[in-house]
Amino acid sequence: LPADADDRTDVARLSPEELVLRFRASASPQAYRLAGHLALGRPDLPVMRLVQAAVEPDPRPQHLAEVILGGLLTTVAGPPGSYAFRPGVRELLLRGLPRTARNRTHDLLLRTGGLIDDRAGRSPGEFRALIPSRKGTERAGPNESFATISEESVRQLTVRERPPAPSPFPPGLGARYRPTRRLTPSGRIWLAEDTGPDRTAPDRTASDRTAADRTAADRTAAHPVPTNRTVVIRLHDPATDPAARQAFLHNARRLTRLSHPNLVTVLDAGIEGDVPYVVMEHLDGIALGALTRSGDGRLPVPLTVSVGAQLARALTALHRAGLAHGGLEASRVVLLPDGTVRLSLFEPGLASGPGSRSADLRALCEVLLRLTSGTSRPTVPVDSRRLDRLPTALRIHYAHAFDQLLSPSPAAQARGLDLLGDPALLTPAGEAYPPRRYRALGPLRVGLPDGPADLPRDVRALLAMLLLKHGRTVTHEELRWGLWDPGNEPRNPRGETTRLAKRLAEILGPGVLATAAHGYALHTSTDELDLVRCDELVRRADAARLEGSLTEAHGLVSEALSLWGDAEPLAGVPGPAARTARTRLLRLRLALHTKRAELDLVLGEYDRAATELSGLLGAHPHREDFRRLYLIALRRQGRVEEALEVYEEYELSGGRSPALTALGRELREEYAEPVDDAPPWSEYEQRPAEPDAPGSMVSAPDELPEGPFPTEDGLWTPLLDDDAEHDAAHAPADGDEREERAQSRAALREAMRSEGLEPEPELDPDEDPGPEEEEEPEEPEEPPWADFDTGFRACARYTLADGPVDRDARAALHGLVMELLADSGTDAAAHELVDEPGGPLVLLAPRAEAAPLLRATVEGLPGRLARLAGLRLRIEFWQVEFGLDGSGERSLGRADADAVGAVLDASSAQAVVALSDSLYYDEVREEGQYGPAFPPDLFRPLADDTGWYHLVEGGGRPGPAADLR
């Protein structure tokens, strides 16, 4: 083979013949034979394993590794393990196969297909079909057959399309709402998707509307804006009596106008045919009945007291509106993750007179008696000694309140409600309850009142998933894919999950683990969870920073970082869900370090910032945000020379950050070094003068491609260019003398400047330009951004749409934007977050794609909007064009603000994401090799065609169009 001096270690520059010769000389005979067989099909890792198993009598992993690492393959877009042969290599490998082997391609396909036939439909995860995907996560070659399988295997591997099941809703209701899951065995309550246009809830009056009028035919939409929100629909018993229908519609109209923090929002109600229905918002929480179903029904004392107080406030608001619940029980009370109680599933068809309201209060007493004594059978007067689940200091108070609620007197019942709502009850309740302490920002630990819990390894995996989604139900399907890797699942995943849940409930005790029909949930509002504490500290730090309290903000961020242990988050917890969460939490930790370093610099604590950033940069050398802040800290300490060394180390590694490049130029100017206007990476495109110089260097570990094996071109990064010629050896003989004269002239000019004199423009005395050369203007040097191929950048603004907001709301919005940036994976050096009066503004760096932040916003908002306390959010993405010479920026057009506001006002969504027309076609509609980056129907055009929008549902109150108070 040619010598390495000719750069033959760079496989990307070898011809196909040289690649195959090189591989044949270094690989084992088994690996070379396997490479020839692999050339018959597609070189994806699952396929290569199948082919090896089909053709090798003794298949060994090292032979397959030789093929992957031997330089014949290169990684391609797709899941880990996606490869392709380099151009020309496949044909040469096929030519090297024996004639009989080449002619037995069909036999090979049959043998490979036999392995699939044996596993199809029997072993989940053994074989995954590779198909094109809209998001480009899978690939499939059009002419790369790798197996021949039987018709039976095709049937087992194919998802059979079943005929659509008939809708459980009446025709008019089913035309708008698509059922997604049945919530009760009776089929009366459904989770559904609202696919129709948004409209305000019906505003009916008895004088101009009758029950018979309320059909799907005469209901019209106020605004034709699709919602696609998730709702809960309850179908009531058929009503044929006109009086009953009128009573239902009358009470339903009042419910749609009622808004209270402890009452579920009723979005729509009516009668289709003879079936009354109520459409409510979907609450992502836990039913109180599911939390008390297991064990003895005992709850933590603070939670019991809080539930009683909030239910008392809910019934007070309901009764003041002239309504009654009509069926209060534990299964109709929903606990949100933060401990908020929402009363749901009203009975609008029942009379709402004084008798119904009195029945509500007696039902409330029965629910609380069950929580405080274990029985719901009241005896008057209530014996305080039976309330043994309450601390002694509260028993007499609650016994008196229960006596009042069970009284036939409305006035006495009202006094009982006031006793339940006394805020002073929470203090003794909290003092009597030792909270559980969950630690996930490190090794997973649980502190119980009697000491640390001993958690088996598989139970830790279940607990981690429940903590990461605390207060919300984790479905059986989510648990299956989060607890076990594909192919390693137990024979009965549902039964194994039930066993683990029972074991976890035994360890944690009653009142914590909720068991629902479709999954499990862990309620932690009265306990300590470091994930929740960290989120709270970061939110408070953002609020303090916005108010200018930088010292307070720094202390809060430091306290948040102190929650992390020395080990990585969820250390020792198995399962795919824990691995994914571990990466996200580590990213959050690094973002907090960045936030604290920025505060140090603003506060003038340069020594502290430099010390911390030095350690962080040593542990994470690829983090450009750490390096940028470290350079700033060194510069402000006066350590310019050391800062320049750190920057030059970054240059030598091939870094290309525009922010760091500009900072490096400033450091060189301060250090009085000549500034090279060429990009810092251009010097590596010059070939060294020595013929024996090495042709490449090993890449940093974080630059290796994802996948089980890196290919050879992933391990080596060529830094030399064949077209560049080094001319140092051809320099003129008098070069040293000319350089000495130039240094003398530069020193003289510098001395004149130090005296306040401006020297004349300098001409080289050794050169006598001719007339043509004097008249010809000098060609300007390329700016450092000349290597960029775009003059555009993207911007995103997050604005609260409900007028003036307080400090807490602004801080909550700032924290939400920070989390979306972290979820997007956007490097801190690639964006700038500016806090403006109108809301946070994100300025992305040139060439930085907006798609990651846009995707993180669309996917992450539904689970985070609850922290805005019902405030509506307007988000806008647009592009600006800037001159490559720094001549300024201009917008390429933005979505019309009035049109965006009208869309949000016309819907009950809590947020709207708007895109400019140019950004939509550049980032959303642009198709890559494997299809569009976003679903084609995700965004819809605005009415004035100035942009595109997407509505996002949240857990807050509906927008003005649906708020009928």
TrEMBL record:
Biological process (GO), any one: regulation of DNA-templated transcription
Biased composition (Acidic residues): 757-784
Chain intervals for the UniProt region annotation (Disordered): 160-221, 670-788
Extent of Basic and acidic residues compositional bias: 196-221, 726-756
Domain Protein kinase, chain residue ranges per copy: 189-592
GO function terms (MF aspect): ATP binding; DNA binding; protein kinase activity
Pfam families, per database record: BTAD (PF03704), PK_Tyr_Ser-Thr (PF07714)
SMART domains tied to this protein: BTAD (SM01043), S_TKc (SM00220)
Record's protein name: Protein kinase
Keyword field: Kinase, Transcription, Transcription regulation, Transferase, Two-component regulatory system
Keyword Transcription regulation: yes
InterPro entries: AfsR-DnrI-RedD_regulator, BTAD, Kinase-like_dom_sf, Prot_kinase_dom, Ser-Thr/Tyr_kinase_cat_dom, TPR-like_helical_dom_sf, WH-like_DNA-bd_sf
